[in-house]
Structures are given as structure tokens and as C-alpha cells.
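Researcher: Please predict.
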Amino acid sequence: MAISAVAVVTALTAWSNSEGNAAAVHRDAQAERVVSGREVFDFKNLGELVSTSPVIVKAEVTGIQPGRTLGSAEEGGVDQARDVTLSVTTSYKRYPTVPTSIVMEEWGWDEQGNGYQVEHVTWSQVGDKGFYFLEQSDATGKWQLVNTQARMLDKGGWLELSADPTSQFATSFWLYDPLDLEMELRRLTDTKNPPQDLPAPQSEPDPVSGDAANSPAPDDGTEEPLPDDSTNDGSEPTPYPSPS
């Protein structure tokens, strides 16, 4: 989300903080692969996520556009973000203030226009409503998820988490619905009556530099996963947005 929040260094490409070359002419209309990386944070429960997140909002996705490009051929490839516009309805935590409309970066496309998602963070869709735990991106005026656990969509009475469904973090939400989450967020962010059970925020580790920063994530021998809605039929890349 190079994204400092996820610190992704994948076998597909190594992301850079420098502005990249021109974006691909064609872009997939949906993610066709899932890439993995090294997380900056690994939360075990909601309290850890809340205490570490500078900004927490309830919002609706109102627009999606191709965003900035990062990297170069010399650095391993060019990647392009997706700019997701969020219309904020509730701010639970402000750093220092949160406007009513913000842009969140998510990933992304490679230099051929092939779409990929990071871990379980499926691509946002216009009309999505949910809870977003954010920090400032290294792109001026934009935001990003604190890590891949930091989005919870309201699916009309149940929550769809971006976290690994087998993780301790995800299983801690077993009995939560959107209303439960909203009430707990208000309790955990109450500055007048600070909760005694709120953990200390996690600290970011020292930045990785040199050869280690460009090394691929460890290969566990498994095949690269595909998103649940991937066509995987050899027809990609498809134009973005999808043809009518």
C-alpha cells in the first residue's frame, strides 16, 4: 500500500518511493492475482489496530481512478495505484483533521496493466461502505490502509474483513456485526473517558534498505493465489474501466 503501510516487496516487483514511468495503456478491470509481502504491523485484536491507526473513519466509496505510478524498469518494474475516493460519514479519530472526502491509495496494476491485489485486500468498488483505519501515504494529500487488516466492509448486517480469515485478528471478530463494531470504536476512541484496556500503539520497525529492500518475499513453495472472482482464462489484460 512502495507502500510504507504494507512494506510490500514481492516476487512480482519491488516497489519504489520514486515516481515511475508512464502507466500501461490497458489496465485490467479486476485483479487477476494476489501478491504477498512483509507487513509493518501485525495486529491481534481491534484495540491494537485502533491505538496504532492515526485516522479511523466510516465511509463510502464514491469514485475510483487510476493513480500514480511508482518504480522503473531498472528498479524491477513500474506499478500503478488505484485512487479510491472515500466520502467520510463518521470520524472516530482525527490526525489532525479529516476532510469529508479523502483519497485512499490501493494496489494496483503492473507495467503491463495486469491487475493484482495485496493479500486479502480485494479491490474497492463504488458503493462499498465500511470502516477504514488509515495513515498518510507518501503521496501528498493521500491516505492508505495502516496494513492489510485495516478495512472492514459493512455487507448489510455482517462484516467483511480484509484480514486473513484464519488469523487471530479475524477470529476475534466472530460475533461482531457493523453496529457492534461502531459501538466498540466509539468506546475505544473516547477521549473523555479513555478505556483502560486500550493497548499501547505499535511502533514501526526500522526501514529496510540496501539489498534487503529489493529482495523478494520468502517463497513458501505454494502457487500464487488468484482472487475469487478472477477470470484466469488468458484473456487479460482487459481495458479499464470495463467496456459496456
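Model: DSSP finds three helices and nine strands in the chain.
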